[in-house]
Amino acid sequence: MESAKWSQLWLDYKKCKDSVEKIAIEVLGFDRAHRVIDSGVKELKLALGRIFGAEVSEGNGAADPFAVKIVKDSAVAKEGYELVSSASEIRITASDENGALYGIFAAIRKLSCGVAKEEISEKAAPSNPLRMMNHWDNMDGSIERGYSGNSFFFVDNEIVVDERTVDYARFMASIGINGIVINNVNVKDAASYLITDRYFAKVKELSEVFADYGIRLYLSLNFASPIELGGLELCDPLDESVINWWKDKVKEVYDKLPLLGGFLVKADSEGRPGPFTYGRTQADGANMLGDVIKPYGGIIIWRCFVYNCTQDWRDYKTDRARAGYDYFKNLDGQYHDNVILQIKNGPMDFQIREPISPLLGGLTKTNQMLEVQIAQEYTGHQIDLCYLVPMFKEVLDFKTYCQKDNDTIADVVSGRAFGNSLAGMAAVINTGNDFNWTGNYLAAANLYGFGRLSYNTELSSEEIAREWIKMTFSLEIVDEDMLTDMLLRSREIYEKYTSPLGIGWMVTPNGHYGPSVDGYEYSRWGTYHRADHLGIGVDRTDKGTGYAQQYYKENAEVYNDPKKCPDNLVLFFHHLPYTWKLQSGKTVIQHIYDTHFEGYAEAKEIAANWEKLEGKIPSDMYNNVHHRFEMQLANAREWCDQVNSYFYRKSGIEDELHREIY
Ligand code: GCU
Predict the structure, then answer these.
(1) What domains appear along the chain, each with residue ranges and CATH number?
(2) Per UniProt, which keywords does this protein have (predicted)?
């Protein structure tokens, strides 16, 4: 493998103990020439050859000792599969090509995880209809919030389609991803808009590579395109000349890109243009585009990350956290049926701990999907270890009380709660053109984990971690246990040494790595955390900004009361004295001191655990992660010192344990 140009991640098939001389692949009921079936067969050949050292052929395998059969059966759920095996065959049954491909990858996963070929059995159907990755890749090759090199799609304003693109599509299909937005939501510089002649041929090529693996390509759009590209004077969604411009443009786009899934739009946020400029609503904007794209079967994914970053919050009523709900809830039911709202997991911005957005499930008559971020913007830049699947599980398991049953976020975003067929999960992706794709080898667990979870929200964080470890490394069980434990603890460790009790931020402005207690970038109006010599936290109760009231009553009551509010969110919802006793029995200030010391100590512990793997994994992997742990420890130390000394000086309260606070 020394000639490898990039890592094969979890598809780096390794030889198992069981050797098989000959294996036959048979396709029954599916069109063998279908592009997705063809990809599946190719993958099987590669995997079976490597795993069993077998000679793999196609056709009737009667003469061969072992067969893998891909069988069509309309009784299997859409994009689902069934696996059964016996001494003579593995049978993969599906009703459609994507299901067959996922079944093939599932069989390979089982084999890679050490399941004997005679003992394969699984029945699966996707929890979410849409399972998407959002790239924040810019046309110049840079990546917004990218921590693993540059874009592998774009170099110097040109599109690259090569073997790496194919491998990328394989990886995504292997974890069940069926939609990918290739460009940043912040679409700037009209000369490089992808909906122009300059790029159609290459985008088409890319869309075909994706289609080979059952993936639809989507594009981010600039709402002001009629001005920037069309030379119009406005982009008012209700203006006829604007609508006509879009009709012509979208027709041209679909003539050139017949496989396009649709558009993702960030409007009226952080400097992006949108319908507000013309006194129109978000629904006006989204529906106009929805209507225009409808004849082509496309969809509009409209982001709810809409807020005014220049707002003055000194009146203690204005609150960024309220914005999504305030702008979108009252339009519930007005969105057209090919429009879907994409909602970040929390009301702020991908902090290490936030409450769940009340818009999810707050909307009951609108298509909605969840947006999370596996790019570790606020969670350690793929330097610090932070396995995010436990956070995503918490989000999915959250009970909204939006109706009697079927009311968790998983129910809402899968479409089960309100019967939507446009529903699902999207992640801001953490990849780049680094050899190992994700900067830190261990950050690939988040890439893998998001995909697996979006396909099956019932999987546990541990199951996903173990699968990924088994497929990536070849470790003895004690080492697998240790690495699993490191991953599972990492999010809480990161939380401990960074911002406490749900307050968030305290991170360097703009860069978002390392501590800066007062450093919220929109802090023109004062500190975000509102700490003074007596206390800290943002009052979001009915007496404060009223944000807590955006939840259904059961949750609102809990969040509104500092005695009931979970400790880990209490400063998100309340301004409390440093001497306030948490439910844990500790005071706020003692909690801050303790968690920061613990976080640093535990980071040291997991870094030391990594050293036990030296010699047991390839040295480039070992060194890559080892180096990052060194940086993580420096970061954790810095956070611990800065946060503790800031609050010691502010409060004047001694640490009960008299540890050294600098
Ligand atoms: C965050 C992030 C930006 C990004 C934005 C978004 O604010 O820092 O880089 O553009 O989220 O989600 O649109």
Answers:
(1) 9-124 (3.30.379.10), 130-472 (3.20.20.80), 496-538+575-651 (3.90.1330.10)
(2) Hydrolase
